[in-house]
Amino acid sequence: MKSANELRTLLRSIDHKSYPAYKSLAGSYQFPGFLLSIDHVQGDPFASPSSLHVEILHKTAGFPAAYYERNCSRIALQDFLTRQFASQFEDYNFKAKGSGKSGLLSITRCGQEVLERSACEITGTKILSRFHVGFPAFGRTINAGELEKILFDFLPRCVGNSFCYARLDAKKVEAAVFLAEDQEALRDILRKEKLAAFVANGSVLPRKSGVSDLPMKDSVAFISPKTMERTFCLPHKGTITGMAVPQGITLIVGGGYHGKSTLLEALQTGVYNHIAGDGREYVITDHTAVKLRAEDGRSIRNVNISLFINDLPNKKDTAVFSTPDASGSTSQAAEVIEHMEAGSRLFLMDEDTSATNFMLRDDFMQKVISREKEPITPFLERARDLYEQEGISTILVAGSSGAFFYIADKILQMDCYCPVDITDQVKVLCKEYTAPRIQAPGFKVPDYRRVFPLYDRKISRGGREHRGGRQGNENRREHMKIKTFGRDSFSLDKETVDLRYVEQLADSEQTSALAHLLRYGLEQVIDGKRTVRQVVKILSDTLEQKGWEPFCGSCIPCGLAKPRIQEIYACLNRFRG
User: What is the pTM of this model?
Assistant: First the structure.
């Protein structure tokens, strides 16, 4: 470790040299109050900016230990500090002049969800924050004076104003931590009270637009139906009242544009905590909940879909089903089984994005096309057994078929954005009509012993192609290139993993993290013998116990966010390799 003065001297010695001389700055330097590490130096001023991180000891930062002892409060504090650091950077961004990305100061842009990110980590002894700096140059000539201004003037101010508790608004810090603890308490209540979800009265569910996750101004606030209203006591907020959705099968109905899908979308994001002011702070859903939908064209590998599909005309075995190009119904059947394997206890479904023939078949259709000629057992006939035998609840948005009324435990009508409990009225009406078939025989939970096959990829060396599995390729990581395309997909070398329809990915940084997890899995874990469950457990346990370093090496990038186990499963299941 060197001193800050040594860094200043080194900087001045390379002034006006060619840009690659900046690489000599890599290393750690002790500044007053924090340690600065220059992890990676960009190749030229137009390349991706340099990666740096700072470390501040707890005795210097001064935050109360109670704010980071619990997992939920630690993540909330990390999120708060990242947002604070980002706001400080806005004041100094590009104030150091030069060409290309000279003077850039950037860190993660947090959304409405509170996620565990590589941008800020709190350990037992220190706070660590990763960020990017564009090292200044004129053309491709080093401008050391401008970088000195960034590192010795701008950065110490930003670090002090972000990570020194005495300089922050103590009430805002406390509010962020207390909100997270209240949200965690509410999740504990869901488990104890056997509830699938909770939506607080006064919540703002609609979003500003299709491209903005901010709350919509002047929207109708959520008010629970009296029959489903519950009041709970939280450790900091005190009493909170709202709609408690019981485990079982809940149906959300109503006319078009009355808010059915808006409620479902709020519930699917309720697996994450939200920041104050989002409007969905107390919209809490079972943390294993997963949004299911049809996904035409996705690949399926060795999934037992016989619970829903049997006796295919081509005699294909549906107990070990694989296809590179699934239909809507087949993809949705596979997704149900895959997320049963992932341990999900709540399925969220919208009729609009589901395969109709997977969801139901009416009596008329069954008369025209006999049951013997139809290989699909619809979800309508399996939903009750999924709950009663496997404990998997369903919240379903429906708008075109009354068949779902017969299986529902609770029926909510969205009327001008307000929920109305119409369960009793509908159950009376159900007696006046002939009930459709709502249960099928032969419910049997498939075993989850799918083995993840050894990935055999071609590796180019010296102009020749060699096939390489996990063994015999010690330098595989440096050859396996990761490229992320926003939240929707990523590629490993030339193999693209399409995640467009994994709707509960909240941030592109989660997609980046999934790419790193999959790469590590292919290199270190998948051996052609371990099951998918075993692979996911190793990946999640490694991330939980050892952090990002096993997946990234010593230089951990700023832009990673921890995904849920459900999204890790979804990623592995969509890897065509």
Answer: 0.94
